[in-house]
Amino acid sequence: MDAPTPTPIPVAPAAPPSGVLPTGAAPYGAPALPPATPYGVAPAWAPPTAAPHNVLAWVALGLGVGSLMFGLLASIAAIVCGHIARRQIRERGEQGGAAALTGLLLGYILSGLFVVGFVLYLLFILVMVGVGAGSASSGFTSL
C-alpha cells in the first residue's frame, strides 16, 4: 500500500537581522524620519557670526595697564598700539574699539603723569641744590 504523501510544513519567513526594520517602519510606533538632505544643501538658517576681535586693541589695553608697573616705555607703546588698532578696526570692521580707546587713554594719561612727576622731581632737586648753595655761602662752617 501506498502511504499518502505528507503535506509540507509551511516555513516561517526569515526574520530580518536584529536592529533592521522593514522599509518605512519606525520602532515602537514612532513616526518615520523624513529623508536625509543631500550634502550640497545648506541649512535654512544659521546664527549670525560676530566680527573678530582686533588683537592689537587688547595689546594696547594690556600695555596701558602695564604702564603702571613698567613706566613710560610701556605707556608710549600703548599709545602707538592704540592708534594702530583704532585704524585697523575702522578699516576692517573688527571689534575691540573700547579696548583700543582705553589703552590709548591710559597711555596718554600715564605718560603725562610720568612727565609731570619727572619735572617736579627735577624742580625739587634744583630747589634743594639752591638752598644748599645759599646756606654754604652764609658763613656757617661745617665740621
From TrEMBL:
Q: What is this protein called?
A: DUF4190 domain-containing protein
Domain DUF4190 residue range list: 56-116
**Pfam families per the UniProt record, alphabetical:** DUF4190 (PF13828)
Keywords associated with the record = Membrane, Transmembrane, Transmembrane helix
Keyword Membrane present in the record's keywords: the answer is yes
Has keyword Transmembrane helix?
yes
The membrane spanning regions, by residue number, are 55-84, 105-133
